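Message: A physicist's question: would you kindly supply an amino acid chain plus C-alpha cells?
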Amino acid sequence: MDRRSFVKTLAAISATSLPLTNTYAEQTENEQEFFGILIDTTRCGGCQTCSEICAETNELPVPDLDAMYEGKQKTSPSSFSVVNVYNIDDEEIFVKQQCMHCNQPACAVACPTQALTKTEKGPVIWDGDRCMGCRFCMVSCPFDIPKFEYNSANPKITKCVMCWSRLKEGEQPACAENCPAEAILFGKRRELLEEARRRIYHNPDQYVHEIYGEHEVGGTGVMYLSSVPFEQLEFRTDLGLKPYPEYTKTFLYSVPVVITLWPAFLLALHNSHKEEAKEGNNE
C-alpha cells in the first residue's frame, strides 16, 4: 500500500469510527423488528443436532457429542454453538449456548474500527477487513462469546452470526431450521416475545414466569424459556437491565480526538503491512 492509499484508508476509517453511540440509539427505535431466536429448554432433548448443523454450515470441525457430559462447554473458535446438560431434581435440562446478539451489543461499541456491527435485521456480525485484532470485543462481552484464533497464522474473531448469509437469502438460521424438537424458534423478536408469553400463560406450571433476554442488558436477540430459575442453569442474572453501551456513552463523547483516531491509524498501518507482505510474496 503506497502513502496515498494509506492516508485514504485512515481517513475512511476515521470518518466511520466516531458516531458509534448515535448508531445504536437509532437502531433501538426499530428494536421490535429485529430478528431473533427463542430457545425453549423444556423442549430440548439434548440431541445436539443444532451443534452438528452449525459446524457443517460454518465448515467447523465435527463436534464431540459426548463432551457435554464431561463438564460445561464454552463456545470456541471451532464451536459457535454448544449444548450443556444440567441435572436438577433428578431431571436433565439441556441448554444451547451461542452469541446472544444483544440489541445494543457492548462488543460492537467497544470495537474501535467497527469490525463488529449490529445489522438492521438483528445479527451481530464481524468484518475481518476492518479488524485490527485488539480484542476489546472479548473483554466487553458480558456473555464471554467472541473468541480469538490464537493458534492461527491469520487469526480471526469468531462467533455465531445467526447464519447471516442464510438470512440475507431469506432462509432461517441452520440450527432453527433443523431442530427436530422445535426447541429453537426463529422470527421477529417482538413475535417471539409474544409466543414466549403465550406459552407461559397456557402452561404456568411448566415454566418459570420469566423470559431470559427480554430485558437483560437492554434486551437480546436470543431469548430463553426454562422450567427452573435461570441461575440454576448458570445464566448470568447479575447483569442488570441497562444496555452496556450506556455505561460508556459519556466516556466516548469525552475521549480526545487523538485517542479516537489512534485505532484507525493502527488499522491503516496493519493493512499497509498486509499489502506489503502480499506484494513480497508475489515477487
Summary: Residues 5-32, 251-262 have pLDDT under 50 and may be disordered. The radius of gyration is 20 Å. The longest strand covers residues 82-88.
